[in-house]
Amino acid sequence: MEKIKEMLANAGGNILLAIVVCVVGMIIIKYVMKLLRKLKGFEKLDQTMTRFILNFIKWAMYVMLIIAVVGILGVPMAQIIALLASAGVAVGLALQGALSNLAGGILLMILRPFNVGDYIEAADAAGVVHSINLFYTVVMTLDNKRVTIPNGNLMNSNVTDFTAEPKRRVDLVFACAKSEKPAEIQQCILDAVATSKFALTDPAPFAHISGGTNESMEFTVRVWCETDKYWDLYFELNQSIVEAFAAKGVQAPAMRILSEKA
Fold this sequence. Notes:
Strand order of the largest sheet: 4-3-2-1-5
Helix content: 40-55%
Order of helices and strands: HHHHEEEEHEEHEEHE
Largest sheet: 5 strands, antiparallel
Radius of gyration: 30 Å
Low-confidence stretches: 254-262
C-alpha cells in the first residue's frame, strides 16, 4: 500500500493534468466543430460530402486528443505505437465487416453513385437517402421507417437511383375487348394523356398495341414527366384513361392490368 501511495503521489500531477487536458480538449473539439459547420466553404459542397468531412475531422481530433493524454501520463510513445500495431492486427481480423463498411463509405464519397435526398433501391431496401456515414447509410422509406444499410453491402449490390435524372417515364398497360378499333383506342388514350398537366410532349407520349389474347387487346402507354412528378402522373393516368374508356363506351376489359414497378 505504501508503494501504491508513493506511485500515486508521483503520478498524481500527471493524472490531474491528463484529466484537465481531456476535458479542455473535448470542449475545444466541440467548439471547433461548431465553427467548421459555419464556414462558408462548406456551403459550396453538397450535404453528403460536408457530413463526411466533418465526421472525419471530428474523429481525427479525438484520436489526437487520446494520444496527447496518453503521452502526458508518461507512457512511452514507442510502446504505444507497438501496442497500436498489435491491436490493429487483432482488431482488423475481428472487425473485417466493419472495415469493409468503412472502405465502402470512403468509396461512396469518391464514386458518388447517389447523394443525400435521392430515392434509391438497394440491398433489399428502398427509400430516400437521409445520411451517408462512415460505416452505414440511413434510408427513410415512404412510410417513414428508418433503414440502416452497411456501406459494404451498398458497394457490393446493384443500386437503382430513381431521382438521378431530371426526367422519368411512366409505363402502363391497358386492355380492351378485341372487337374495338385499335386506332380509336389509341387516340382515346392519347387524348386522355394530353389533358394531363404533368405529361411532357418531348419525348412524345406513346400508345400502341403490345399484345393480347383471343378476347382482348393490350396497349402499352409510355409517358415522360419530370422526375418529381412521377407519382402524380402515374396515378393521374390510371384514373383519366379508365374514365376516358368508360366515357367512350369501350368494352371490357377496360382496365389497367400491368404496371412497371417503381
